[in-house]
Write a structure and sequence with these properties.
Helix 1 (8-25) packs parallel to helix 3, helix 3 (65-78) runs parallel beside helix 7 and helix 7 runs parallel beside helix 9. The chain has three domains: 8-116, Butyryl-Coa Dehydrogenase, subunit A, domain 1 (Orthogonal Bundle); 122-237, Beta Barrel (Butyryl-CoA Dehydrogenase, subunit A, domain 2), CATH 2.40.110; 239-374, Butyryl-CoA Dehydrogenase, subunit A, domain 3. It is an alpha+beta fold. The chain contains eleven helices and eight strands. A four-stranded mixed beta sheet has the order 1-4-5-8. The protein has a four-stranded antiparallel beta sheet with strand order 2-3-7-6, with no helix packed on it. Bound molecules: flavin-adenine dinucleotide. Flavin-adenine dinucleotide binds at residues 90, 124-127, 132-133, 158-160, 207, 212, 356, 359-360, 362-363, 365-366, 369. Residues 90, 124-127, 132-133, 158-160, 207, 212, 356, 359-360, 362-363, 365-366, 369 line the site of flavin-adenine dinucleotide.
């Protein structure tokens, strides 16, 4: 059944999230800051923002994908620190979710409560210096040992949260020749137990409060109980976590876009018709129409994820259109409003933050490849 209106329960979820973010979280956020906001991270744990999709028996909120989308959209609207919002999303969607779906029982019982309330920070480590879009062509090796453990050797890069992470979800090749056909394994690596090292936070164009860096494994032994899923099932686990990312990560971008549009509408009202003219009003209306369209696409894709049917075309389409609109709209609004937006750095900061949205979770070209394949091309 199609339901185009939010239920009472969904509205209440958005209201309670908005209240918490405005009253509890925002005072701890310095918009325009450059450091990871550790205090805000801890506070977010009170609402278990880091464990929205994790079942309640493991300390999470037990929300479905559409509810997760609604909460993240609300966070993205009210919290101007897009880096913080991204750090929360990366931790939740690419780390807590795959551990929750595929982790061994003892690991889920031990780690998910700590991940859900923010006592631990997680990072996903897939990308390597020589493999990005071709992620499964990785060089990091997981050499099996006779006692069932694995010895990891190799380097990861571009890992969001890594410089401050306590745990990693890391992918390594147990059989490089088989690659995604059974040759990749996913692991939980715990900094307190497994001596991997991380580089410093790398200077980058945007998302400054979400530290991003390298990860190094030098003969790091990881015991069998830290294997996520089964040996050789890493590609499936990674793809499942990407389904969640592609369905829900764009929610914060949708919230961010609406915040900027609302501010733009206020500025237009404030300065009046003579300043902006009809063309500008129409352009703003067109941005709003496009945002309304991709928002519903995001809701639909999150709902699809709840149906537990693989839908790579829907996930990639939603990710592609939300991120491309995010990039174009943030640039477009800065141009359209001219000097009138210049005093509110939210506009230019969001522009810098939006640039990478067409790269992470698979670039726009990779989303188009997935869609092309799904429609038989
Ligand atoms: C802000 C940010 C956060 C990130 N966070 C993480 C993280 O937490 N964990 C993690 O593991 N990685 C992370 N990444 C890495 C990200 O996943 C990769 O950047 C992405 O997969 C692209 O890989 P690449 O940069 O090596 O580009 P490449 O794969 O080298 O691609 C270069 C260009 O070629 C195009 N291209 C490549 N292959 C094809 C093809 N088959 N067809 C058409 N065009 C193609 C790409 O679209 C791109 O334009 C992050 C990146 C950014 C920018």
């Amino acid at each position: 059944m199609y339901a185009f209106a939010p239920s009472e329960q969904q509205l209440a979820l958005k209201r309670s999230t908005a209240e918490f973010v405005q009253q509890e979280l925002c005072p701890l956020i310095t918009a325009g800051g450059t450091q990871f906001p550790a205090e805000a991270w801890q506070k977010a744990g009170m609402l278990r923002l880091q464990g929205l999709a994790i079942p309640e028996i493991y300390g999470g909120r037990g929300l479905d994908a559409l509810q997760v989308f609604l909460v993240l959209e609300t966070l993205g609207y009210h919290c101007e620190d897009n880096g913080f919002n991204f750090a929360i999303s990366a931790h939740l969607l690419a780390c807590a979710v795959p551990i929750g779906l595929f982790g061994q029982e003892s690991i889920k019982a031990e780690y998910l409560p700590l991940l859900s309330d923010g006592r631990l920070i997680a990072a996903n480590a897939m990308t390597e210096p020589a493999s990005g879009s071709n992620a499964f062509q990785m060089q990091t090796l997981a050499e099996p040992a006779p006692d069932g453990s694995f010895v990891l050797q190799g380097n990861k890069c571009f890992s969001s949260n890594a410089p401050v992470a306590d745990v990693l979800v890391v992918y390594a090749a147990n059989d490089p020749e088989r690659a995604h056909m059974g040759g990749i394994t996913a692991f939980l690596a715990d900094r307190a137990i497994h001596p991997f090292t991380t580089g410093p936070a790398i200077e980058k164009a945007g998302l400054h409060t979400c530290p991003l860096g390298d990860v190094f494994f030098d003969q790091v032994t990881i015991q069998n109980k830290f294997v996520i899923g089964k040996t050789g099932r890493g590609a499936l686990i990674f793809n499942r976590s990407m389904e969640w990312e592609r369905a829900c990560l764009g929610a914060t971008h949708v919230g961010n876009m609406q915040r900027l549009l609302d501010k733009a509408i206020q500025l237009m009202k404030q300065y009046g018709k003579d300043t902006f003219g009809d063309a500008a009003r129409q352009e703003l209306a067109y941005w709003q129409a496009q945002l309304d369209a991709v928002r519903f696409m995001g809701y639909a894709q999150a709902w699809q994820l709840n149906q537990k049917k693989a839908n790579p075309r829907g996930g990639s389409s939603s990710k592609l259109l939300i991120s491309e609109l995010y990039k174009k709209m943030t640039i477009g609004l800065c141009r359209l409003l001219g000097e009138k937006q210049y005093l509110d750095q939210d506009f230019s900061r969001s522009q810098a933050d939006a640039v990478s949205s067409t790269l992470y979770s698979g670039t726009s070209e990779i989303q188009k490849q997935i869609i092309a394949q799904a429609i038989g091309l």
